[in-house]
Amino acid sequence: MQIRSTLISLVLLFIPTFVSAQKLAVSTDMLGYADMLTVNGEVSYSVSRHWSTNAGFRYNPFRFHGGPDEHLVSNRQRTVSAGARYWPWHVFSGWWFAGKVQYQEYNKGGIKSMQTREGDRYGAGAAAGFTYMLTSWLNLEFSLGTWAGMDVYKVYECPECGATLDQGEKFYVLPNDVMLALSFVF
User: Fold this and answer.
1) Rounded (to 5) percent helix, strand, coil in the chain
2) Which residues is 69 bridged to in the sheet?
3) What whole-number distance in Å separates Cα of residue 61 and Cα of residue 7?
4) pTM for the full model?
5) Rounded CA separation 131/135 (Å)
6) What is the per-residue pLDDT across 121-163, written as a single tens digit (0 to 9) for each?
7) Nearest C-alpha neighbor of 134 from the set 182, 67, 79, 99
8) What is the pLDDT of residue 3?
9) 22 with 92: CB under 8 angstroms?
């Protein structure tokens, strides 16, 4: 009996070294799909109790026919980002603050007017959010953020014609990371 309780005590003592914490999360923003079916995803990796790194993407190749005159409407983009989050309590749970760098290639037009704008954006952003644990492997995330940088752009008269109205470079500040996301924790 004594040997058995000693063995059980030793096993229980060393269990924390054999059990690994949840280190990886994969998420997708549900609001992104409402933005003309923009496919998106993010992978986060916990590097400590309070810090995680993340890499994300957004992709929208779609053009739609819209309006009474059946003109083309698009909000196409290819976006990649990399950053880090600080979690005051614990990773993948509660409030967080984030910073990141981001690149975006975009083509947007036909939504408010016939003009189409395309270009490349380079910048950095900041966001804050809250992660609500639904289960031990599923979270619901809310966030708001902004990003700023340089926009190298061209403006065209319409989505299909090629008449250039304007082109150049300018500084921008835009909303970013307005999310309602599902996150799967592994």
Assistant:
1) 10, 65, 25
2) none
3) 60
4) 0.84
5) 12
6) 999 999 999 999 999 999 999 999 999 999 999 999 887 777 8
7) 182
8) 63
9) yes
Neighbouring residues of 61: CB distance < 8 A, sequence distance ≥ 6:
76
Burial (0-12, 13-18, 19+ Cβ within 10 Å), 56: buried
Residue 100 is encoded by which pair of tokens?
């990141």
Q: Side chain identity at 57, as an amino acid letter?
A: F
Contacts of 73 (CB under 8 A, 6+ apart): 36, 63, 64, 65, 66, 67, 109, 110, 111, 159
Cα 85 to its chain centre, rounded Å, is 12
Pair 61, 40: CB distance under 8 Å = no
CA distances from 132 to 91, 140, 182, 183 (A): 11, 5, 10, 10
